[in-house]
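Sanity check. The docking grid for adenosine-5'-triphosphate depends on where the pocket ends up, so I'm generating a full predicted complex first rather than guessing from homology. Inputs follow.
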Amino acid sequence: MSGLLGQVRRAPGRIIASVLALSLAIGAIGVLAIPTVTEGSLHAAVERDGLGDIIVGTTPLDRQQVELLRGIPNVASVSAAAVVAVELDAAAGAGERSAVDTVRLIGLAPDRELDLLRIDAGRVATGPGEVVASPGLAEPGDRIVAGGRTFDVVGVGAALLWVGADALYGDIDEMAALARGAGTNHLSILAVFDDESSLRAIVADVREALATDGDTFTEFPEYLPDGTTPIDADIRQVSTLIGMLGVMAGLVALVLLASTTNTLITERTREVAVMRALGGRRRPLRRRLRRIAIGITAASLVVGLPLGVVISNVIARMVLEEFVGITPEVAVDWRVLVGSAVGALIGARLVAARAARRVTNAQLAAALRDREGAPFGASWLQRSIAALPTGGLISRIATRSSLRRPGRTVAVVAQIAAAVGVAFLVPSLATSVNEYNSAAFESWQWEVSAVAEDAGLPIDAAVADAVDGVAGFEAGIYTFGSIDDWEVDAWGIRHDTVMFDADLRAGRAPAPGEHETMVSAGFAERRGIDIGDTIEVELAPGTVPYEVVGLVDDYSRAIYIDREILAADVGAPGRANVVWSLSETPIGALIDGSRFDLPTLDVSTAEEVRAESGAGRDAIVVIFGAIGAIVAGVAALAVMSSMLVSLFERRHELAALQSLGARRRRLRGLLVRELLPLGAVGTALGLVLGGLGTRGIIGSFESSNAVDIGVVDAVGAIPFVVGATVLMLVALVLVAVRSASRRPIAVTLRGAA
Amino acid sequence: MHTGPEPHAVVHEPLVEARDLTRIWGKGAGAQIGVTGVDLRIDRGELVAIVGPSGSGKSTLGALIAGIDTPTSGSLVVAGTRIDRMKVDQLAAWRGANVGIVFQDFHLLPTLTAQENVELAIELGGSGAGRRLRRRAARTMLDRVGLGGHHRKLPAQMSGGEQQRVGIARALVTQPALLVADEPTGALDQANGHVVFELLTAVARNGTTVVFITHDLALAAAADRIVSMIDGQVASVTAQRSSGALATGITTAMATGVAP
Ligand SMILES: Nc1ncnc2c1ncn2[C@@H]1O[C@H](COP(=O)(O)OP(=O)(O)OP(=O)(O)O)[C@@H](O)[C@H]1O
Ligand SMILES: [Mg+2]
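Predicted complex below; grid placement will be based on this.
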């Protein structure tokens, strides 16, 4: 330790720079912790707030029916709720505070074990007329009018299942009375064994039990196996991406770690030679060198580990707040923490051992003169290059110097490639996701889409027909189903629809009144589904066969069925749950209830939907941008540090050039000529790797989601990436030449430290 | 060993004029004195040896005269130019045009062949000579230092003596007014050292001012004048081509502990 302090005193700048570089490297490994920190926070929330393993909408059930479900094998707990979407009337206190116009009334049983409320302020509701409002909607003491009823807000809070939604949590009977058909219409079921197939078995049993009373599911059950959450799927995609970038960050960090450690020891070549000349034995010298490297790494852990925790938590929080709407507590991934500490120490030890061996084995005379031990002309390649005098002398020096230390040159090129690769990959992912989002909208022609908030198909058959009768309007069905355990969007559209202009890859649209379907081409391709096949689609009430007649390029995982057929198949003949409009203006008149008896609808314009996915994309871009900046920054730092080392090693050469009359412009010219090709090759390689990486990541998403996404390279980013690389190299050259000309040439050539 | 002093074409016109020249590193108590209060005049065409005990400031003085270091104070005029206050780039240009430097450990560019190393000096010297001319001049110079067959070799493929001869060819190819050599034979064996020294005296005979630093009094005895240094100061300067004075110089040098 005292030896280390001595080192710090002797060259504080250099040691501090090394510690910072190493800290950043160790901190960057923290990116690896983001997925686990994110999922950890979510799962903690799941445990705490009692989230079910199966979530499903039902036709109205009474208390006794729910009670019976508890007897089903493997069911640990069942909680029923009444959920109904209503208009939020401007009301005392809350009206001006909230920009929302519809709100979910959620009635929860007081003795439930699932869907517990997290109260941020005030208290829980204790009877009819009292509600807990979701954050931002109202404050305790406010009075709120919704669905024609007045509620006293007694608290602010949310249940995890509905987190992010505008909701009022209140008395179960009061809300059930407001729901269609009077009864609870929502089930949360907790299983003892919560693997996917056990959950499916429970669903089959529940379906059967409900059917005895003529009841059924009104929506496709949501399975949350193994403690996952409804947002997990979204989060996991983001997390996986982050994890991949994390691996990049880790690799780049290791390179930085290795080059920094290597530098620390190589710089001591002369010092070690002196000690050896004085009779120092190699073994203790090596041990000392290793100790210095490990000591500095250990010091870096003090800064680096907390930095990693901060990085992972800041990004995890960004992800969770953006995609889930919950603010997680600070979490630590101990595996990554311990792993990065141990990895850094072992890495430093390995690199240090190698470098120490090289330094202690260096030829004594050469080392004492502080000349580096890498002569040019040792290899056949170097000799043949030297025999081919092409270009100016300065260019020859530049080219040959790169060949002189091929290992280092390759390392620098690789690091530049890593930095460029990440810097290109991140915007490419962003543009791909962006293009994917708009491609998924392309076939839809509507300007306004109004989707019923409640489960089931709340639009009456007569209303649906009436809507169809208005020019520019059409009713439809948007629900979910499952094919081979892959959840798919199930669209019910009129056979003569003007809302969906299918981009058919093959086949045709379903004929009216037939059990036929078009399937997403990308999904069909990945699942081996062909035209003429009959696919079994599990819908809310059960499984239904459809013949595949068309494949559509829709960048989705969806099936398209004649609306009448789908309505009947989900047990609600003639009904619908969506109203589409070709133009924006008359939708208000249609949905305000004066012409049609429509349920509460969630109305959004095409522009809003696009903006929403744009916002999601921006969030992804910000998050990836942050990680990308870390990775690219660490890589750039690694390039800088190893380049500065090799330039430091060549200070005698630069001084000799200066003694011959070379001005600074010449030195800059030499270094530019030397670095530019490395930069060019590294950049080209990086762009290729970034492109391949984007394809790899998107490809893995395509296959894990069985959906076409498509890659769009961020060509627009290339000038910036190239510019940044050039800038970095220029900065490097300026710094190197500045330090070469600041010190008197005579001093450099003496080799005095 | 060597042929002894021969008549040189010394013009009595100063090439180097140092007044109160001082070079100190650091400040206060920890300051290291390189040279202090040096007054020295060297005429055109002279062959001057600088001798003195280790640490007496020989290399420091040589570096200042060659313009690869800058004095802390004092004035220094070399080849008609005041170089003590020059900017980095001006000084570089000045060196390229006026000085040739020979280092103890050669400092050849390791990635260039002998021929290319010499050509490089022409290119950086700023003479504006074309490529063909440069190549011819470099080849001629290598021939003159006896490396006719070695011009394609890389430094790593040459012996120390050969490398130093390339160093001398590189220093001379621009036909500088001044050649500064700091222990040019220090890293060489006796035979190689002798060849190199012969080259330097030959250069001086052709009119180039040569300042060389040496520990070898026998070599120093071949100079026109000997500058003896002690503790950063000039202790004595022998009179020109006076064998008596030369003897005094040698005696002084011996008294101050310079090993022959
Ligand atoms: N860069 C430097 N920093 C500090 N002190 C220096 C530096 N260079 C030289 N010195 C000091 O200046 C003094 C003269 O050094 P110089 O190298 O000129 O001696 P020298 O006569 O050439 O010795 P030698 O015969 O051993 O080569 C010495 O005391 C030395 O310690
Ligand atoms: Mg010296």
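Relevant for the grid: Residues 92-99 of chain A have pLDDT under 50 and may be disordered.
Also worth noting: Residues 151 and 410 of chain A are 70 Å apart (CA to CA).
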